[in-house]
Amino acid sequence: MDTLVIERGGVGGQAGSTERIDNYPGFAEGISGAELADRMRQQAERFGVELLVAQTVASINPGPDSGGVRTVTTETGQEYRAPSLLLTPGTRYRRLNVPGEEDFIGAGVHFCATCDGPFYRDMETLVVGGGNSGVEEGLFLTRFASHVTVLEVGDRLRASQVLQDKAAAHPQMDIRLNTTVREFRGDGKLSSVLVEDLTTGRQEELHPAGVFVFIGLDPNTGFLSDTVELDPRGFIVTGSGPRSSQMETNRHGIFAAGDARAGSTKQVASAVGEGAAALIAIRAHMEDEIRNRGYRGDN
Ligand SMILES: Cc1cc2nc3c(=O)[nH]c(=O)nc-3n(C[C@H](O)[C@H](O)[C@H](O)COP(=O)(O)OP(=O)(O)OC[C@H]3O[C@@H](n4cnc5c(N)ncnc54)[C@H](O)[C@@H]3O)c2cc1C
């Protein structure tokens, strides 16, 4: 098989920009996301995979459902054709959508602690979101910030117990439950954050130097529009087609894996595992194509 990977940024996705990955098999001491991504790149290149970076896929034309060629078009208008596609566009951070958020992005409001945390050395920071990402990134921020407060809208943290225990034991961290952000305020740069206690309705103005928002993820599936079946949140549905393997979309020959797939578990190990399972299904699909259509890679 000839394989082309099209990536709008750099190789590595979210894993590549994660400070440390402690739960990927084979790395007993953990590994930095950047190093893991680079090792994966080297391994893919060793097997002849072609990597096309800084190219965004704008649309796909799934072609006839009976098989044959599918076309991928990039934002620059370049077209690539293949008998089978594997969709792995991942996810992006969700916004709070409150007044001021958009105005202060990069000037006090951030979505990546690894990228922007070092700007807040010896300063107070606020993390919005008490899931795995929020608590993990909050713990990471304690390396720089003098204090980190994690706001969680629900009545308990949603992070894993291990992370909750680490946060509870950390002298520079505290957690505020049932609390949400109503507004970001400032003049050119963030100066305060209006928060509300949802149990009492009491509003309060906090003055962190920076705020990091980790409230969930939306799939990067806008470019698919209605070419493959998506669930109500926009994640790619697999395993529902008549001839479908578990990783195949409702379009025969088009597969999906990783965080953008509905029901995925949002971990590097599972994303890689899903990719491997999809590849085996793709190989079977290609063998069918060769048998039924005489496809040899030149049509
Ligand atoms: C802060 C943070 C910490 C994490 N920590 C861990 C951890 O410790 N352990 C763990 O197992 N997992 C962790 N994860 C989750 C892990 O990073 C993801 O599960 C994994 O990266 C998913 O891989 P993916 O390939 O499905 O998607 P992604 O990593 O999101 O990759 C998708 C790629 O597709 C590209 N793309 C999207 N749309 C297009 C387009 N139209 N054209 C071209 N390219 C496109 C994107 O640029 C991106 O590079 C963490 C995630 C975050 C955000």
Automatic annotation (TrEMBL):
Domain FAD/NAD(P)-binding: 4-275
Pfam families cross-referenced by the UniProt entry: Pyr_redox_2
Keyword Flavoprotein (UniProt): yes
Gene Ontology molecular functions: oxidoreductase activity, acting on a sulfur group of donors, NAD(P) as acceptor
Cited InterPro entries: FAD/NAD-bd_sf (IPR036188), FAD/NAD-binding_dom (IPR023753), Ferredoxin-NADP_redctase_2 (IPR050097), Pyr_nucl-diS_OxRdtase_2_AS (IPR008255)
Domain of life (superkingdom): Eukaryota
A GO biological process held by the record: cellular response to toxic substance
SUPFAM superfamilies: FAD/NAD(P)-binding domain (SSF51905)
Family: Belongs to the class-II pyridine nucleotide-disulfide oxidoreductase family.
Record-given protein name: Thioredoxin reductase
